[in-house]
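Quick start: what a row looks like.
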Amino acid sequence: MKNIQKIGFLSVLLFVISCSTKKDAFLNRNYNALTTQYNILYNGGVAFDQGLSEINLNYEDDFFELLPIEPLSFENTKFRIPILSTGAKDPGIGFDFNNKTNAKAAPEEQLTPFDIAEQKAVKAIQKHSMNINGKERNKKIDDAYLLLGKSRYYTERFIPAIDAYNYIIANYPNASLINETKIWRAKAHIRIENEELAIETLEILLRKPDLPDFIREDANTALAMAYTKLDSINTVRNYLWEATKTSKNKTQRARNLFVLGQLYSLDKIKDTASIVFKKLINFKQAPYKYKIHAAIELAKNSVSDSSSLAILERYKKLIKNRDNRPYLDEIYYQVAVLEQERDSLSLAILNYNKSLRAKNGGAKQKTYSYEQLAKIYFKDLDYVTSGAYYDSILQVANNKNTLRIKRFERRAKNLSSLVMYEKNLQKNDSILILAALPKEQLEKYFQDYIDKIKKEDEELAQKKLNQISFGSSFGGGLQSTDAKGKWYFYNSQSLGFGKGEFKRVWGNRPLEDNWRISDKSILVNESNVDNDIATTIKNPRYEISTYLETVPSSAKELDSIAFDRNTALFELGLIYKEQFKNRPKSIKNLERLLASKPNKELILPANYHLYQLYLLSENTKAAQYKNLILNSYSDSPFAKIILNPEIELSKEKEVDEDSEVYEIAYRLYKDDFFEDVICFIDMTIPTLEEGSILMSKFELLKAYAIGKYQNKDSYIAALEKVAVDYSQTEQGKKALEIMKRLKK
């Protein structure tokens, strides 16, 4: 018994000794290495893999834009400062060994899988590191540091991540994972805009002979990321080609191929782009989202007049494939684009609408479909419908702060006044037409309308009844088990519907004679029953008096409506003339205005605008309006302009005066009176002629002044206004350029 106790004691002692991280012995090294790998790091690796799976599952690619090479978006990069070690253990890895709570998140914080992975890595280092005489004897600790760095990378703490990578490189130069560590360090440097150092590291690494395929893949991919930040597209393409020669990381290879195809497409190198997309389609192990979008891009890159029908057939095959249902909005959109290029506008409109109706359609895809429909109707001069589609873009857009959406917002705003006046014109025209009808015709008009809505109501009620009866006949889920046939009173659903309709029309009525009459006191004889019924069940929608009451009859009301109608005609004439350069519609509205006997204040300007409109095409008509103005309104400013066209040249003088005013504003800016600059410009801009060439200069100078004393967001907002409002000017392009730099 004593021997057994001795053996047990020795075993426990041996175990305790082997657990020690201070003794450099075979047993100690192997015990701590095994515990590190198969306990702590295993669980950390599981958590890390879970985090990667969540990224792959939740990250949404925008296939309308150039995909990022790495499917991550760090828009609000957080450079968390590490707590440096103060103990004897290894400094610079981003945590304090003496602070036990540092490895754990605060209780109120939600731990991510990457946070858990980091905790496990820290635990492995704290409990099993065997740093004896400045040398690490646990061969698995470098794995813990790599997991630590990678976990921090995915939680956007790039500087602490670099610390962990540097520790490996400094202390484990011969480790099996040293090359992988250098790649991860380079990626972290890319994220903090230190691309040059990343490139240098990776290019040195690739010079090594006999590198494993996965290392070459990852290194070339990281180099492509770095050169993307430097806008060196040719170099990016070269490294992506190198990265796709093998397929150790199948998902990343598929992504690299797609990005490579996109880059060739953007440079209009369609043949090479098609080769890349075909290669991706034939890559059996590629995720399906890349393959289907490669098929879409392949069709787009082969668009030509001779091949359009073949491409359409290709799209139709994609539509028929049930696997492509989540992507039908994109496919129908591409079909519509192709039909539009073939001048098949009706088919284009049809497919744009199919794209909008497709299930699982994305918001951004909808904005593109609405945009194309808006452009089609605008080109067709249907501004009301076009404006409605631009409004729809603003309704569905997720991010309304992009320049693209802001441009649509401005177009919608420009169209909104036109749409308002068009609707006012239509409404007031209808009222005036009805008011002018004889009483008999007016009553007939409303009676025809009542007959129409009655018929529609009856058809709708019958349709509902048929639907219920159909469901009952075929064992619908709501059918009662006691239904014995198709006869109405054996069908519980039909019976229930009938009861509901009865209560809706008649209310709750007792089972008795003369049930249709709620007030029995009105009963005199049988002859008046039908008349009484008629009076008790009147529906205002079916009564002519309901509609007759809405038609104005007094002269004052009609004059007011006519005034609103004429104002709408005048405003529409000006909008079509000045904003949309649509001469026919402008002429149509202004001439109709003059034919409608408008108020005096509208007659002269309407004649002058018609004179200007006809001056460009029809001299006879122009002369007619000219003579009318000169003879009837000889003292008016319009007559003076006609007699002396040089008056129009005064705008050039105004430009010179504006230039002097701009110099004043610029001097204030140079002298650092930034608030005064803004105040001065705000007072000056309203005095400028509409369309003045100096408007954009004043607005850009104002943005510069805002940038000098207000915050970055205000500066970007001011630049954005210039970029959107004056996109075609030198100032607008300059504002856009500065804004892009600020957002990096």
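That is the whole record. Residues 1-192 form one domain. The first helix runs from residue 2 to 19.
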